[in-house]
Amino acid sequence: MVKVGGWSLPNSRRDEPPYFSKTQLVDVLEQVAVLLELSGANGFKVRAYQNASRALSSMEEDLFSIISEGRLLQVKGIGKGIGGLITESVLHGTWGDMQSLYDKVPTGLIEIVGIPGLGPKKVKALYDSLGIESIEQLKTACELDHISSLPGFGKKSQKKIFDGIDLLRRYQGRTRMDVGLLFGRSLEEKISLIEGVEKAQLAGSARRRRETIGDLDIVVSSLAINHQTVIQEILGLPGIAEVKGYGDSKISLILEQEMLSSSIGTGALDERLAETLMDRNSDATIDAQVRIVTPETFPFTLAYFTGSKEHNIRMRQEAINRGLRLNEFGLFPESLAGSSIGMEAAKHTLLCSDESEIYKNLDMHWVPPEMREDMGEIEAASTSKSLLPELIIPEDIKGAFHNHTIYSDGSNTLEEMAQAAQSLGWQYLGIADHSETLNIGGRSIGISSNLVPNQRSEIIKLNQIWSDEGVDFRLFHGSECDILADGKLDYSDDIRNIFSHVVGSIHALGSWRNRDEIENTEMLIRAIEDPTFTILGHPTGRILQVREGIPIDMHAIIRRMGELNMEGNLKAIEINASPYRLDLDWRLCKFAKEQKVPICINPDAHDVNGLNDVWYGVQIARKGWLERSDILNTKTGAEIESLFNVR
DNA sequence: GCCGTTTTCGGCCCGACTGTTTTCAGTCG
Question: Which residue is nearest to the C1' sugar atom of B15, using CA?
Fold first, then answer.
């Protein structure tokens, strides 16, 4: 989904190259693709811009270096045309004649393509014939019955557009992973219990563990003779706000809160979340697509609706390379399928009892769902000895380093937090309360310098008790220390040296937002280089669906941390496991691993229940290709003690 | 616009669904 805000070419805040950052280029290329589409450009050209944007965003090296060294055109997906535009903008700060494209397309059109059923072609037709360039105008045109007589439109289209405008207004966009999974598992469970259902499995972005989920996809396996009764049963389930449509093999639904209230057998974690949602009297809903297939077809359909679009494209290409064709019903020789399509073509499918056999027929190892994003997994799975990592699991976690108590803005005591950690089977808990300068809304939140020793002695006392009792558990006395606008850390050097570990975090985002990426990166690196600095907390400050992170070159920061680690320091980076943050972004995890920067999965808990959030962090780590050995909090308490500043 | 055991043009992933048409274009995932 394209954001409408900031729909213009960026101006540079710098007076020397690089005038623009990679992130800015990624955004511009994506916008250009949309504008081209709306102005009726060739679809393949549009895709070229999308591909180039994607290529840039997954590029790990510094863009300016690549351009300076003349290596830009070696990047797959960037050719002469787009490469020239990128080079011009970065080196000279200008955008060629791109401004004319921006001028040509009214920004209102971008909003209009968000209406379900209206794509770029139809939006352009409305603009060309009726001059419609805003949602308001479109609504009026519907009311005046001006749409239905247009070629290619009709009465039904007009009504659909009119209803769609309302839908767009209510449309919440994507749903956070925790909430989406809650709905998804609940529906999955209810369908599984229906008679005649062999299996119901969540697919789509929920199964891939994206940090936000668009709509839910559920694939249901059932013998053909049972399909009709199963469909009727599903339509009658509680918690369905609306049935958008259904046929012989597919149901499209909108789920509402009641779906959660009657859920059974979910863990304590999910029950609490369900309660919270109900308490807030939230009107959150989520769309769900249910596909009913036969047991033989199930693995193909599951794989098809699990892979990201990009992963699936690559998979189909792998099939083509072997004289095969892959669709949601099977994998079959092109020669036998001929001109038939869909289920008919799949009559000749190779039999696969599960997903792994589909991959095997394409000479690949099975790829965990989280990794199906075309981020290198196809290549890694295609080698004779798999290069896919053995992904971390939640049970590997032995503690966490960033948690709050009543000393700052937490709501439980040291003892209560420790007890909760012990009941999770952890060997340690890192306390990292806020530092002195932090105040939110004029209220001071952090621990003042003179109170730090109090917390220290309380922790020493508790640790002594466990040690005496022979309990393998300890608290680490750390700090979530503010990184100030000039890159200095809060507290004096003396105070910071008291702590076993320092989680450096940015909280006062204002000045960081008003600076460019290059300056922010410089300041943050300055903070990281401080000898007392241990862990970078919620690295970009993003809050999912609320605010973007600060402009920052994460690749450069991770590279620098890697260098410092090579010099014998311990500089780690956090995956903040709060489902509303999930920052570090999963796309950067693999890079951090390659640069030898350890990752911590930190729940950032503010109460005893918050510790459970670690589970979401593990999902992100899996998505980011991380193994047990990449994660700092899979180490034992004794190992961490020897790594930290513990005296 | 990008790409290439088919090096400079002709491809570029697959299919369902919808509504408009009367064979298909556009949208969606």
Answer: A342
Nucleotides in B strand less than 7 A from protein CB: 1-4, 11-21, 25-29
Q: What is the pLDDT of residues A409-466, one digit of tens each?
A: 999 999 999 999 999 999 999 999 999 988 766 677 899 999 999 999 999 999 999 9
Name the residue closest to the C1' of B28 by its CA.
A117
The share of chain A scoring above pLDDT 90, in percent, equals: 63
> A206-264: per-residue pLDDT in tens?
999 999 998 899 999 999 999 989 999 999 998 888 887 788 888 988 888 888 875 54
- Asked whether the predicted pLDDT for residue A170 surpasses 80, the reply is no
Sign of CA dihedral A516, A518, A522, A525: positive
Distance measured from the CA of protein residue A142 to the C1' of nucleotide B8, in angstroms: 49
Measured CA distances, A385 to A363, A366, A379 (Å): 11, 12, 11
Nucleotide showing the shortest C1' distance to residue A125 CA: B26
CB A365 within 8 A of CB A373: no
* Contact assessment for residue A358 and residue A300, using Cβ atoms and an 8 Å cutoff: yes
Closest nt by CA–C1' to A342 = B15
Task: Please check the confidence at residue A171 and state whether its pLDDT lies above 80.
Answer: no
What is the helix (H) or strand (E) element at residue A355, kind and residue range? helix A355-361
Q: For residue A278, what pLDDT is reported?
A: 55
What phi and psi values does residue A395 have, to the nearest 5 degrees?
-65, -15
Domains of chain A listed by start with CATH number: 22-104 (1.10.150.110), 108-170 (1.10.150.20), 175-293 (3.30.460.10), 305-381 (3.30.210.10), 404-638 (3.20.20.140)
Measured distance CA(A447)–CA(A562) in Å, rounded:
31
Angle formed at CA A193 by CA A353 and CA A282, multiple of 5 degrees? 115
